[in-house]
UniProtKB/TrEMBL annotation:
Top-level lineage group: Eukaryota
Pfam families in alphabetical order: adh_short
Protein name per its UniProtKB record: Dehydrogenase/reductase SDR family member 7C
Record's keyword annotation contains Membrane: no
Lineage, broadest ranks: Eukaryota, Metazoa, Chordata, Craniata, Vertebrata
Keywords: NAD, NADP, Oxidoreductase, Signal
InterPro entries xrefs: NAD(P)-bd_dom_sf (IPR036291), Sc_DH/Rdtase_CS (IPR020904), SDR_fam (IPR002347), SDR_family_member_7C (IPR052148)
Single Gene Ontology BP annotation: intracellular calcium ion homeostasis
GO terms, molecular function: oxidoreductase activity, acting on the CH-OH group of donors, NAD or NADP as acceptor
Family of this protein: Belongs to the short-chain dehydrogenases/reductases (SDR) family.
Organism (species): Ciconia maguari
Length: 153
């Protein structure tokens, strides 16, 4: 039995994920179950959302989970066991008005983890994707002109 250890990670900061994964593996030796459950969303018309914000949403919802998964995966493959879970969104299956960046990032994640599931079968690693409908998330009302505050985390 291991004592719990709190490790802070901003999943949208791709550059720190590899170090965090190393820290986890150094501390515990392995990861049996990886649950990717972080997300960012923004609501707005396509023409009103900047490309910068589109990229930030993609980093958090697509590149973050796949970067962490790829960092942990070699350990699971070498042990020929493990489970990877992506908590995604129904918007990874169907698009909704005013959620283009979010839906696009969730569609991309579904595609990646569907492919990963097929590839990991030979290593006895289970890959699951959960696509719940709408959930209540923490949200701050943005100040005028402050797009970053309009992000749902």
């Amino acid at each position: 039995t291991y004592a719990p250890k709190l490790i802070l990670l901003d999943i949208s900061d791709i550059n720190c994920i590899q170090d965090v994964a190393k820290e986890i593996l150094n501390c515990y030796g392995c990861v049996d179950i990886l649950i990717n459950n972080a997300s960012m969303k923004v609501k707005g018309a396509v023409q009103s959302i900047s490309l910068e914000l589109d990229k930030k949403i993609m980093d958090a919802n697509y590149f973050g989970p796949i970067t962490l998964t790829k960092a942990i995966l070699p350990n699971m493959i070498s042990r020929r066991t493990g489970q990877i879970v992506l908590i995604n969104s129904i918007q990874g299956k169907i698009g909704m008005p005013f959620r283009a960046a979010y839906a696009a990032s969730k569609h991309a994640a579904v595609g990646f983890f569907d492919c990963l599931r097929a590839e990991m079968e030979e290593f006895d690693i289970s890959v699951s994707t959960v696509n719940p409908t709408f959930i209540c998330s923490y949200h701050r009302q943005p100040a005028p002109g402050n797009w970053e505050a309009s992000i749902w985390k």
